[in-house]
Amino acid sequence: MRLAALFLALIPCLGHAEPRVVSINLCTDQIVMMLAAPGQIASVSWLARDPMLSSMAAEAAGFPANRGQAEQVFLMRPDVVLASPYSSRPVIDLLRRLGLRVDEIPPAMTLDDVPAQIIATGRAMGREAEAEALVAEFRANLSAIPLARGTAASYQPNGHTAAPGTMGDGIMAQAGWRNVATGNVLPLEELMLAEPDLLILAQTYPGTSRSEEMLRHPALSALNARIERSGADWICGTPHVLRAIAALSR
Fold first, then answer.
1. What pTM was estimated for this model as a whole?
2. Is 6 inside a domain boundary?
């Protein structure tokens, strides 16, 4: 009778054990690492180890890496696989047919989406309280960043830019800058005529790329603009966007 009573008392604890998680998406990788209990992470994607893409490359090196392949993920025997709606559809469908639970976490497309992405990831991991605490910390830190004043432009390979309503546009606006772009592409001529006070250039990879040659165009040196570089903190809607905002506000 005593053993039975002890077993019944333990059932609630057993029911709340955190599931082992495999993340196959760069953005969920980072939120998982911020929320996970010790031993909960079975694997994060290999992209999480790339410092050009990931704000937590050093932390990711401490976990097994996956390349988002169904066979590889299945053999890890996770309780839940975290993916994005934009992850490989055949991989997600196959994992589900094999009996694995796959949660597709919508990516944060704007700053306003960041809390929802954190909460959804925390719910999938059984770490709701930790997610709520992280959101509260994010909101408090966001409101404490001072505002700059002026115009800004984001200039990326092939002339792409942060269009109004995007995450990049939100980062600039939150730091106090008015985005000069009106679409997804900012021609060099329009950039020169706009004469922004702040020019945010994309990081370039080693080697040679025609698309990145535009970022070294001699005309850019004629702009009387402060230069900043975007990077991993700009890519995913995680609390690391705070560092990008703070850098622009200084």
1. 0.88
2. no
Query: Taking 70 as the threshold, does the pLDDT of residue 72 lie above it?
Result: yes
**What's the number of domains the chain is made of?**
2
| CA distance linking residue 113 with residue 91, whole number of Å | 26
Cα–Cα dist 21/139, whole Å: 26
Q: What is the mean pLDDT of residues 26-32?
A: 98
Q: Which helix H or strand E contains 46, and what residues bound it?
A: none
On whether both 175 and 210 belong to a single domain, the answer is yes
Please, which residues have CB within 8 angstroms of residue 67's CB and are 6 or more apart in sequence?
A: 45, 46
Q: Which residues of 156-195 are buried (b: 16+ CB within 10 A; e: fewer)?
A: bbebbbbbeebbbbbbbbbbbbebbbeeeebeeebbeebe
CB atoms within 10 A of CB 198: 21
Query: Contact 42/64 with Cβ under 8 angstroms?
Result: yes
Number of separate helices (H) and strands (E) present in the chain: 11, 9
Let me know whether 188 and 97 are in one domain: no
User: Which of 140, 161, 193 is the C-terminal boundary of a domain?
Assistant: 140
